[in-house]
Specification:
This protein is of the alpha/beta class and 593 residues long. 45% of the residues lie in helices and 13% in strands. The relative contact order is 0.09.
Length: 593
């Protein structure tokens, strides 16, 4: 172990920023991170032992206690539930003789949940030692169990077990225009970098990660910073359940994504770039590194790019299972080898980002779009979409529809048009933007995908009338409680309280006061939390409570009141109490009375 870790840290240059890479390698080698390894890592990398332990405990893919030689993680996303996750879980427990959340007695295999695998169109899905296993079925599970029991290395397993499909079902101006490697860079250098930035401004391109900040403005801000070094970061940590478009773009259009990053670097004056790849996309890691090497050989990365004096290179950093790292400042903290805790803002990354340097952070789809705009021009892109939402949006559509997959649609398209195109029938509602987004009912299908109406990072989950809305909300609420980084009390405690309060109502043990308390707690978590996770964690409850209050009421206990008892007055008294504990005590007295 000592030699393994010594060699590992030597390869990683003794840099504290490479702590995640070191821990991933140790986890892979030993199936947990031993105490002796922690001590050696802390000493060699000159960082506190407590920091190493903190990072291990923060990320769900790291463990302080042994896991199986084969670590099997099944997705707990709502889309996997809809496709038979519970049945597959029971079958896995039976054939592998291991309970969910446990390690088999011989230490060969462990089995547990993971929040989402990014395979929402191909579930129920799982990961085996980090590699994707889509479309689980009993025969496939039988095959996997046999391979595990034979102790066959993963590289000897049949490749069809790991086959992940793109499922691109509708293309538009981005997916229809494949660029040749270097085409965007040659066009930009010929036009001029300042003129290319103007073209991006004309295009009206806004960030495709969900927030929608204007891309040209962000790049301009960073370029104007007085600094010796600037950094380009691609956020490929799409952890929002229901989102998988970035997986497809990186699998089939990585050259364009890397070209967009390189174009950004040329415009802002950066020499270092990072692709932060979510840990669940380990199956893309080697392929993406091979593409980077190909680009270096083509003089599209490295020194003197396309014969100029421009130098820039890209490094891929793998996450380790933390949804919060999709938030740009948490992602930067993770890149620096730390826990992915969101920073206070301001300052913003464009002025103080990676290691305090001006940093541009954009989404995979955004960088792909910039490369295409550099070739075809800003007006070409702006001709599609709406006045405030230019161009197209790539959607990940899954759930109750005949044709789940990737759809590129023009901004301004109605929800009804999307429903018709993907073959959805008898629709109850749609979760747009993932759990942190908005649940809309089937009466709202005239609404449009656009920043001025329904903005989304790309997740589009469809539910038909056989689904129970409270089951959906419960899954999302448990997801947020699990994924809270724990930094701030309103989110750490609030998401747990939301989960418990909703469980009480869903299980039929709630009363009218519990719904009032639930809504008030939602507002508290939403307004007082430190970052976007806590600020949106209550959205599944609030958006469905607004649309389906009768469903919540139907779950409440039937309580008979004494003649003359005024429930409304009792609840108003609770609302007026300044102290939440006093209000809770009052409601308890009301319920008992």
């Amino acid at each position: 172990m000592q030699k393994f870790i010594q060699d590992l840290i030597t390869i990683n240059r003794y840099q504290a920023t490479d702590l995640l890479a070191v821990l991933r390698a140790v986890q892979t080698q030993y199936h947990y991170i031993p105490k002796a390894a922690i001590e050696q890592i802390a000493t060699l990398m000159a960082i506190p032992r407590t920091q190493v332990i903190g990072v291990i405990e923060f990320y769900s893919f790291f463990h302080l206690t042994p896991r199986g030689q084969y670590e099997l993680l099944i997705s707990d996303s709502i889309t996997d539930h809809m496709l038979g996750k519970h049945e597959m879980t029971a079958y896995i427990e039976e054939v592998l003789q291991v309970k969910l959340g446990e390690v088999r007695t011989d230490g060969l295999v462990s089995f547990d949940n993971t929040s989402c695998t990014g395979l929402c169109d191909q579930g129920p899905a799982a990961l085996i030692n980090g590699y994707a296993l889509p479309h689980l079925t009993p025969p496939k599970i039988d095959q996997i169990a046999d391979l595990i029991n034979q102790k066959r290395p993963l590289d000897e397993w049949p490749q069809e077990l790991f086959e992940v499909k793109d499922n691109v079902l509708k293309t538009g101006i981005l997916l229809d225009h494949s660029l040749q490697p270097g085409e965007a860079l040659h066009s930009s250098f010929k036009r001029g970098l300042k003129e290319t930035l103007k073209e991006l401004d004309i295009s009206g391109l806004r960030g495709r990660g969900g927030a929608g900040f204007k891309t040209a403005t962000k790049w301009q801000f960073c370029a104007e910073e007085q600094a010796a070094e600037r950094i380009v970061v691609c956020n490929a940590d799409e952890g929002e359940p229901g989102t998988f478009k970035d997986r497809v773009l990186l699998n089939s259009h990585a050259h364009q994504v890397f070209e967009g990053m390189t174009l950004c670097a040329a415009i802002i004056g950066a020499q270092q770039g990072f692709l932060y790849l979510r840990g669940e996309y380990l199956h893309l890691y080697d392929k993406l590194n091979a593409i980077l090497n190909e680009r270096r050989q083509l003089s599209l990365l490295g020194s003197n790019i396309i014969g100029s004096d421009f130098n820039f290179d890209i490094e891929i950093c793998l996450g380790a299972g933390a949804y919060i790292c999709g938030e740009e400042s948490a992602l930067i903290e993770s890149l620096e080898g730390k826990m992915g805790v969101p920073r206070n803002r301001p300052p913003y990354p464009v002025t103080h980002g990676y290691l305090g340097k001006p940093t541009v952070v954009n989404n995979v789809e955004t960088y792909m779009a910039t490369a295409t705009i550099a070739v075809n021009g800003g007006e070409w892109f702006a001709a599609v979409g709406t006045e405030k939402s230019k161009g197209t949006k790539i959607l990940s559509i899954c759930g109750d529809c005949d044709k789940p997959g990737i759809y590129e649609v023009a901004f301004g398209i109605t929800i009804q048009s999307i429903v018709d195109e993907c073959g959805a029938h008898d629709v109850l509602g749609i979760q747009i933007g993932g759990p942190s987004g908005t649940f809309i009912s089937n009466t709202e299908f005239a609404r449009k995908i656009a920043f001025e109406d329904l903005a989304t990072g790309g997740s589009f989950i469809i539910f038909n009338n056989t689904r129970n809305i409270l089951d959906i909300v419960n899954n999302f609420t448990h997801f947020f409680a699990h994924e809270s980084c724990g930094f701030c009390t309103p989110c750490r405690v609030g998401t747990s309280l939301l989960k418990n309060q909703l469980d009480k109502i869903v299980n039929g043990h709630g009363s009218a006061g519990d719904v009032v308390a639930l809504e008030e707690l939602c507002q508290l978590v939403k307004t007082q939390s430190h970052c976007g996770l806590g600020q949106t964690a209550a959205n599944p409850i609030l958006t469905t409570l607004e649309r389906y209050p009768e469903l919540y009421q139907a779950q409440l206990k039937k309580i008979s009141y004494e003649p003359g008892f005024d429930l409304d007055a009792a609840l108003e008294t609770a609302r007026r109490l300044a102290n939440r504990d006093d209000a809770a005590a009052h409601l308890t007295q009301v319920e008992e009375g």
